[in-house]
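Field notebook, page 333. I keep forgetting to write these up properly, so this time I am using the form the group agreed on. The chain and the ligand, benzoyl coenzyme A, are recorded exactly as supplied. Prediction of the bound pose follows.
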Amino acid sequence: MYAQLVKTAGSGVKSREEMSENEQDFQNRVDADQKIEPKDWMPDDYRATLIRQIGQHAHSEIVGQLPEGNWITRAPTLERKAILLAKVQDEAGHGLYLYCAAETLGVTRDELTEELLSGRMKYSSIFNYPTLNWADIGAVGWLVDGAAIMNQVPLQRTSYGPYSRAMIRICKEESFHQRQGYDIMMKMAQGTDAQKKMAQDALNRLWYPSLMMFGPSDKDSVHSAQSLAWKIKIDTNDELRQRFVDQTVPQAKYLGLTIPDENLKWNEERGAHDYSDPNWSEFFDVIKGNGPCNTDRMNTRIKAWEDGAWVREGLMAHADKKAARKQAMTAAE
Ligand code: BYC
C-alpha cells in the first residue's frame, strides 16, 4: 500500500484552479489552521506524504536507540546509566506514538516495519554514524536531540491531528534529552585535557551529520513545496538548519569548544551565522544505504524483529482466544 501511495507523492503543488472541490475545501481547512482528523476526507498524496514522513520519523526513533543503547553498559556512573536508560526508553515510546499516529492513516505497524527492514523506507541519516566514546553520547544528546527539537517544535502545529498531538508529548521529553546531553558535554569540556579532547573530537565528527538531519538544501528538497502548502511541514529544511546553527554556536562557545567550520561567522546584515554546508554527496550516499553503520543498524533491527516473532505470535494467539471466548459467550446469551 505504502509503495503505491508513494508513487504519487512529491508531485508539483496544484493551483486553486487545478483543485477539485474536495481539494479546495481541504486546503481551506488547512489554511484556516483546522486540524485534519483520521476520518476526514484528505487527498491521497496528503495521506501518502504523512505515512512516509511519520513512518520515517517512527523508524528514526527506533533505530536511534542503537547508537546510545551501545553505551548503557559502559556509562561512567550509576546515575549516568540510569539517565541514559530512561532516555533510550523514551525513544522507544516516541517510536510507538508515531507508529500509532501512522496507523490512523490506514497502514499497519507491521507493514511499516517490513518497509524499513526491506530498505524501502528510510530513517534519519544521523543514526548511520557510530558512537565511539562517552563524549559522543553527550554530543548526541546536545546536537542530535537539539536538531530534533528544532524540527519537532514547529511540527506540534502540523495540520494532521494525531501527528501534532504526538509531537506535543515528544517535545516535552526531547528537552530533557537535550539537556542531559549538554550536561555530559559540560562535564567533559570542564574535565581533564583528555576529556576535553574527547568532547572536541565528538563535536568534530557529529557536527556535519547533525546539520544533515534537516534534509537536503531547499533547492534539492523534493517534498517541501507540497508539504509546506499542506502544513505537514511548517518550515523549510534550510530555515530550520539556520536556526539550529544560530542556537548552537553560543552553546559551543560556553563549553569552550570549536565548531569545525572555518567559514562560521556572524553575518550582521542577515542577522544570522554564515556557515558551511555539509558534504551533500556524503548525505545522499548515507541515505542510499552506504553510511558507516547502515548495514549494522539494519542487521540489528532484522534480528530484533525475528527474535521477537514468538512474542507477537503469542499475543495474537491470546487475542484470538479472547475474541473467540467473547463470541461464544455472546452466542450463549
Ligand atoms: N535522513 O524532500 P525532502 C530523533 C530524505 S529522530 C534520511 O527534503 P522531507 C532522535 C527524504 O525522506 C529524528 N533521509 O524530504 C531519535 C526524501 O526521501 P524519500 C527524525 C532524509 O520529508 C532517537 C529525500 O531525502 N526526525 O531525533 O520533505 C534518538 C528528500 O528530502 C533526511 C524526523 O523524522 C535525513 N536526515 O524533509 C535521538 C522529523 N532528510 O522519503 C534523536 C520529521 C531528507 O522521498 N521529518 N531525507 O525517499 C521531517 O521533518 C522531514 O521528513 C525531513 C525531510 C526534514 C527530515
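OBSERVATIONS:
- Strands lie at 265-267, 272-274.
- The CA atoms of residues 38 and 104 lie 6 Å apart.
FOLLOW-UP: compare against the apo run.
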